[in-house]
Each structure stands twice: as structure tokens, then as C-alpha cells.
Amino acid sequence: MVTLFRWLVRLTVGLIFLAVALVALAWYFAIRSLPDYDGSYTVRGISAPVEIVRTTEDVPHIFGETDHDVFFALGLAHAQDRLFQMTVLRRAAQGRLAEIYGAGALPADDLARRMGLYRNARASIEAQDAQVLDALQAYADGVNAWIEQINLGARGRGAPEFFLYPEDISYWEPADSLAILKLLAASSSVQMRREVLRARLSLAAPERGHELVAMRGEPPLPAYAGLFPGARFTASDRGAGPQDWTSVLAGYLAPSAGASANGFAAAARRTAAGGALLANDPQFALTAPGLWYLARIELGSGGVIGGTIPGIPAVLSGRNTSLAWGITPAQIDDQDLYIEEVQPGDPNRYRGVNGWTEFATRREILRVRGAEPQTITLRETENGPVIPAGHLNLATIVPAGHVAALSWTGGYGNDRSMTALIGLMQAQNRRSGARVLQDMIAPAMTVTLADSGGVGQVMAGAVPHRLAEHQTAGRMPTPGWLAQNRWQGLNPAPAGLTELHPESGIVAATGAAPPGSAGLGHDWGDAYRQARLRHLIDTREVHSRDSFIAAQNDIVSPIARALLPLVGAELWFTGEPAARGTPERLRQDALALLANWDGAMSEHLPEPLIYAAWMRALQDRLVRDDLGPLADELTELFPDFIEGVFRNRNGASAWCDIRQSAPVETCTQIARQALDAALLDLVARFGPDLASWRWGDLHRARHVHPALGDMRGISYIVNLIQPTSGGEATVAHAGFLGHGRNPWLNVTGAAYRGVYDLADPDSSVFIISTGQSGHPLSRHYDDMAELWRRGEYVVMSLDPALARAAATGITHLRPAGD
């Protein structure tokens, strides 16, 4: 017995030592992948020594003798800090995520292949200017130089994720950068998703369904069942609801995910310091690491500083020595779905304008980690690639014997958008900036510009040319065999949407419809947010950097201010207080809080929580009896719809009547019932003391790591979760998940913010949502997250002396053979 005990003790001690050794070994290899920012490397591909000066926040300031060498160093710096993220973005564009993630990523790969993101990127290489081709190649060489250093120096495979997702890291190619830009364009547009929603609303509620998403003053749409008599309303095949958010973010960006931004500027005559101001905050899904990366590069045309996306060799939002710029997704209708009739008895042919036509087909292989490869057949019609019914709920609207095809401005192989973005960095004034942006195809953007002479905005990107006879004007899928529905080519953005000399000296964009944009889009960004932003900047005669920072971080909900007086018009308490503990008293206390609330969506207040829960419950009660199971899939609030109902616009108050009941319910009754239901749910979560509730308890930003975010144990290290203020319609955008146990989880936001002051350029401020490094063990993985949450910034300068004074490391690159 004693001998057995001794052996058990020895075995236990041995297992403990083995576990410790394995942890230490894993730690050692993970630490090996942290780059040495004071390193010196001999590399091929540069003509002279290059310096990468790293500041306290790990922002690289790159100095070289030629533009080629500077773009090379930018590629190397991106790879040092974000190599895994870059390879995942590339895989998402190539349709190769399943090779590392397994079968769960097959739908994303399938859609990317069918949209032709990488194929069209490769076809666009030759369309770029010679200078841009050189920059793309230099950038790729820089990425590859770091991959070579990883292999030569046994640097832990470049990122710890590569140990869990083993792969051979293929060398970077210029087409990879163009493909990521294509992916960004596909992610920024929501038009496919919106067309499917309109069709489903038409099928579920033919008489009034369109009112949920219709813009005020739009002509009515034809009934979808009238366009396709075989179409019938069906519930989503998934039944379980929207796709898991971590799965959506498997590639950091996903087609039809959506994007937004604020871009606003004031001319020198409207500023206290006598120089133009510009603010920009592109809004995408929140990930860890974030999508954005701060960088400064010194080109022959001058220094450039601001926000980049790893994989793309351009500062997308920032400034040079004389010009500042910011980007806002333009939300034009750049995608159309066509329903194509397949010839009965011959699945290889479809109905064209001139009769039955052969599909253009090709086969591609999808490799899957841990499973057999899958071969898919890609089909294409004259309108574009066929998108299978398994994507975007197409199965619920495509009649039997038909397929859906996509026309998209980004689906072309002569796209010079990268030339436009790199040219913008070198532009010296608004006019030259507007000129280079004429090459932009996709994504369509409103670009805000500022220089010493004033401010302006340019809508850049291609616009589909539709005939006036188009059956739905691009708002809903249409028969692909009718010539009147087909695109007649692409046009540049209308010249009338370029304003380089505004009389007011103020410009602002949020994605809402600008003047003169009629017919260009039907799903413009939130007009309430646009109105709030205009109020903040128009009503102040003179602006400062601090006033722009305050506007960029404004958390007042204009929707709350608009809807609460309307919805609660007949509910505000005026009588005797009800007994404590009763539903009536709970409602009275909630209304008392809301009556004195200014609409600020502060994480520390209970009012935003009550308001958000009330509006969500109200919209559900208004539509559920008309839309049935489709109501479960409405993950966003439609404030124009609720306002129209309570103002009885065009008889919209009919939505308040519950069809299944004999009495005719009023909107006041529905509003009261919705508030009671919302309060009961919140009491079950947080208890009956309303004053103790906090918006931040549910509205928490979740920066999820796409690869490791769902792994038990590791997720606590790689995911960042923090309470946040704001909401979907606030200028400081903080979008909701929209479904599940916590629909108010903050999953989208301004992952980059910048305010550029041309009066004192070195006081310009910048911030990203996580940190510069993508390495979970780096101190720069999340060192900016708390600053970002509090609405604070870091200062970045184009002065080389200031960069060197704050340097925490200098990487020296020397040409091979030097």
C-alpha cells in the first residue's frame, strides 16, 4: 500500500511538472512571436536604409528615401503587428476561411467565391496606375520580408493564432490588397439584404408591409407576388434566428454586414484658431484586434498620418501637410438582385432577353479543415453571378424553378479604386483630391475634405444606370429577363453631389441622403443622426478642436427625443400615485424618469435602458400580428415607421389594431402594454428598483476575436468587453446586436476616430478601439480600449523630431548587399 501511495505521489508530481512545462513551452513560443521594435533587419526589396520609429502607443512613423521603400516598410509594420488578421482578411476575400476554421465557414467561402471578390481583384491589377502598381508590389514585398524574418528567426510563426490554426503562410501578392478592398466594399453595402427584406415584407403583408422601410415620399412598390406569381411567404429556414455574431465576423468583414460613419468639417472662418477642422469616425463591427491601425508614412509628396486597414497600403482617413480627409459610406443603391427563370427540363439554361440562354459556369474547389474538399459550380447570367438560395434568406423569396443573380458595382475587373485612395494621400488641396476620387468605383463614399482654403465633400463611386421603366427602381428583386430592369452600365457619381465651396463653411455626412441624391439610394443612413450632427455644428458660430471632439462623442439620442413625446403623449402621469409594488406604480415611476430625461444614452443612467426596451417591445407589438414569424427576424428599430404610426401618416395607425382581437385597439393602449411588458422584463433582470438600473449593464461593447473568441478559457484573454454609452442613432454610434438574450449588446461602433486641426496640425488627435498589436500577449493589444471607451484620444504629429522624442523603439531596415 505504501509503495502504491508513493507511486501515486510521484505520478501526480510528474503530471504537475509536465503541465507546467507544457504551459511554459506554449508561453515561450507565443512570446517568440512578439516583434522586437528595436531590431535591425537586412531585407531584399528596398534601395536605401529605412527607419520605423515606434511611439508610446506603438504607432509606426516610417522614414525612407523613396516612396517604394516607405510602402515596403508599411507592409512590414502591418505584418509585424497584424499578420494573422491580414491573412484572415485575405482568406475571407478569397473564400478560403474553411481551410482553417472548418465546415462552419463554408457559407462565407461560398458567397465570397460566387461574388468573385478575389477574381475581380486580380482582374483589376492592370487597371491601376504604374505608381500604384509599384506601391502595391512594394507593400507586398514588405509583408513577405517579415514572413521571411519569421521563418529565419523562429519567431513563433508570427502570431500565436497560427499554432491553433496551422497553415503555411503564403506570400502576399498585390491582388491580395485589392481583394481586401473589394471585401470592404461588399461589407459596406446592405442593398442585397434590404431587397430581400422588402420582398419578404411584401409577401407577408402586401397592403402595408412596405411602410416599415419606405422613405418618406417614395412611390409605392409593386406587390412582389405580382412580379412573381409563384412566390409565397415562408418563414426563414433557419428558424433559430439570425446567424451567430462571432460566425458573421469570422473574416473580420462580411458581405452585407453594413457600415456607417460621421464626416464633418468647418472652414477656417468658422474656427477659433483660424484653420480648418475635420472629424471622421468610420463605423464597422467591433473586433479584437480592431479593423483599424494607426500609421504615419513619409512620402515624396509629404508626410501622411491617420487610419489604415492592415492589408491596404493607404491612409483611408487622415491628413497630409496641407489636406485632411475622412470617409463615410455613401449608402447608394449599388446592388440589384434579379430573379432568373431556369428553363424547365434543362437546369443549364435560363430565360434571357432574347430567349433561353446558357449559364456561364465554372467549377471551384473549397477545401475544408478536417473534412473532404467540396466542389461547387459557379453560375453566371448576363446580370451577374448566381447567388444560391441558402444565402441572405433568398430561399424565402425565390420561386420554384428560379434562381437569384446579383449585379453589383464592385463586381467588375477594371476597378481603379485603389488608385483613387493612394492618389488621395498625395493630393495637396480639395480640388486635386476631388479629381483623383473620380477613379473610385467601390465602395461608394462621401469623402469630406479640408484645406487652408475651405472645406468640401465629394461623393465618389460608381452609380448604376437604371432605366426609368425599371419595375422597382432597384428597391426589390425584379425579373431578370426584362430589358427594362437591366443596368445600362455604370455612371460616375453626379457632379451635383460634389460641393467644394459651401457657403456656410460647414459640411457634414452620416450616410443620410444628401440634397440632390434622389434616385441614388433607398436605404440612407439615419436621418435623425444627421439632423443631430447638423444641429451640433450649425448652431455654433465658431468651432474648436474640443467642440469637434464633443460632437464626435455626443450620446444624445435624437430618436428618443422625437419618439418619446409622441408615443407617450397620453401616458404621462397626472393623477394620484398608485400603490407601491403594482404594475401601475412601476409604469408611473418609469414615465417620471423619462419625462425629465434629456435623451443622453449614458451608460450610468436607467432611462436609456427603459427607452430602448420600450421601443423594442412597441415595434414588436405593432408588427407581430401582421408579419408573423418574420417579426422575429427584425433586428433593428424602424423609427420612421413608429413615428408614422403614431402620427397616423397615410392611415398608418391601423398597425395598432390587433387583427386577431374583436375590439379595435388604439395606439395609446399598445404603447402602454409595450411599456408594461418591457418593465416586467427589466424587473426580472435587475429587480424592482428602477433607479439602480444602468444602461451599461446591458449595453456592453463586445470586441470579439474572430478566431479565438468562442474558445473556452482563451476567450477571456482575447475578447474585450466594456460598458459603453450611446446607441444606434447617436452621433457616437454604438449599434446593437438586435437579437438573443441581450439584444442591446454593443457590436458596432467607431473603431477609429480622428479630429484633424489644420491650424495646429500637431494637435490633431486619433484613437482606435483596441490597440495597435494583434498579439493577445502584447501590452499594445488593448492599451487604447479604455481611452476609446471614454471618448479620449492620442496626439500624433508629422514632426519627425516629436516622433523620435516619444520613440519606444526604432526598427532599422537595411537593403541586402548594403
UniProtKB/TrEMBL annotation:
Secretion signal span: none
SUPFAM superfamilies documented for this protein: N-terminal nucleophile aminohydrolases (Ntn hydrolases)
InterPro entries: Ntn_hydrolases_N, Pen/GL7ACA/AHL_acylase, Penicillin_amidase_A-knob, Penicillin_amidase_dom1, Penicillin_amidase_N_B-knob, S45
Residues spanning the membrane: 7-30
Keywords: Hydrolase, Membrane, Transmembrane, Transmembrane helix, Zymogen
Family membership: Belongs to the peptidase S45 family.
Name this protein carries in UniProt: Penicillin acylase family protein
